[in-house]
Amino acid sequence: MWGTEWPRFEVIKQDTKHGPPQMVGSVHAADPEHALLVARHVFVRRPAAYALFVAPAEAFFHVSQEGLKDLKPTSREGGSEEPYWVFAKRSHRRSMVYGDLVGRFLAQGPEDAIVQALLQAQGVAFWAVPERLVVGTEPTEEVVESWFAPAKEKTYRLQSYYGLITAKGVENA
């Protein structure tokens, strides 16, 4: 049935207090608060996390390496600026699309924010999102403990730990 799917939110995860936030994937949810809860269950089941953020997927402006040459800086005279978060994918090597936060830029639009980011970082793809649309957990000690600490005690095992199921039983790898 068409039109019954919840909106998609991009998930941004910060693993440690001093680590860079990274785009790690997306979830479908009814609203930003729901998206944070779903993201917690999907992306923080076992790995460490310090903070989570979400923003509506349609709010992200994306440009690939091929499109970078066509970006033009916006004239700053008389235009209103707002803060944008800009992420960059550094190479094509990773199988998943991870974007590292390059920085926060005051800009007249997403293209302008990416042009500013290009002065500080290189990448094969860039994303920009208005900061006003980013919703996240507060990185206080209480939030970190209640949201992310339970995952620290879970044992993580690679798939190969469980062996292969064969016609005669389970074969340990």
TrEMBL record:
Pfam families according to UniProt: PaaB
Q: What is this protein called?
A: Phenylacetic acid degradation protein
Q: Which species is this UniProt entry from?
A: Thermus scotoductus
